Amino acid sequence: MPLNIAIDGPAGAGKSTIAKMVAKKKNLIYVDTGAMYRAIALYILRKGTDVNDPDAVSKDCKSANVTIGYEDGVQIVYLNGENVNAFLRTEEVGNVASKTSAVPAVRAQIFDLQQKLAKENDCIMDGRDIGTVVLPWADPKVYLTASSEVRAKRRFDELVAKGEQPDFDKIKADIEQRDYQDMHREISPLKQAEDATLVDSSYMTIEEVVDAICDLCK
Q1: DSSP per-residue codes, 101-143
Q2: Cα separations (Å) of 141 from 7, 56, 126, 204?
Q3: What pTM was estimated for this model as a whole?
Q4: Which residues pair with 143 in a beta bridge?
Q5: Which string of b and e fits 4-35 if b means at least 16 CB within 10 Å?
Q6: SS3 (DSSP) at 31
Q7: What is the CATH number of the domain that holds 104?
Q8: What is the rounded average pLDDT of the residues 37-41?
Q9: Which domain holds residue 47?
Q10: Is the pLDDT of residue 159 over 80?
């Protein structure tokens, strides 16, 4: 069985950044599951589907063909053949993804792709339900978190660095709302797996978090 590492945690905890660095250090493929869900959210957004109507989302998501490729070790997400990496990290897409990812039809569509990648490759995968649902066999499993204040500050600084003028209070409120949605959805809610190691990165450097996860690998 390939080496599979699962990292779960709330939005803004640094899962993607950390997972990419662990992947490089351990020579693994990095699978950004959040990007897969965001690709479907982007499709739903572009199509103008009512994101609050699960039946409409279930119907329309079937036309969203999401595939994954790798170029120089970097994951490329294709939506109906289009490289959509550049469109996936907006606040709008993230908020839509938080709603659409709770729809069973959307989760089933992505679930098969995730498991196939893991069974065929040594990989590290991050998301909301990787250790609990997608890769229950993963070892090690990590629940990576940080306070909402710290996560909001990280996002705020990221947007400022891009030349934007964000509203810190709005960012923090959005993060807390997404936490609530992710933790209270009926299908695969965000929670720490019983056999996962809790890593709170609030006052840790990126390097310290990476080392802590690598140390868990057998």
Answers
A1: TTSHHHHHHHHHHHHHHHHHS-EEEEESSIIIII-TT-SSEEE
A2: 6, 34, 10, 19
A3: 0.79
A4: 8, 198
A5: bbbbbbbbbbbbbebbbbbbeebebbbbbbbb
A6: strand
A7: 3.40.50.300
A8: 95
A9: 33-121
A10: yes
**Using the 8-state DSSP alphabet, how is residue 159 labeled?**
H
| Other Cβ atoms within 10 Å of 192 Cβ, number | 17
Q: Are residues 154 and 209 in the same domain?
A: yes
DSSP annotation of 196 reads P
Sign, CA dihedral 122-7-151-22, equals: negative
What tokens does 143 get?
């629940």
What value does the mean pLDDT take over residues 79-91? 94
How far from the centroid of its chain's Cα atoms is residue 101's Cα? 10
- What is the percentage of the chain residues whose pLDDT exceeds 70? 100
Total domains, the chain: 2
3-state SS, residue 181: helix
pLDDT in tens, 93-111: 999 998 998 899 999 989 9
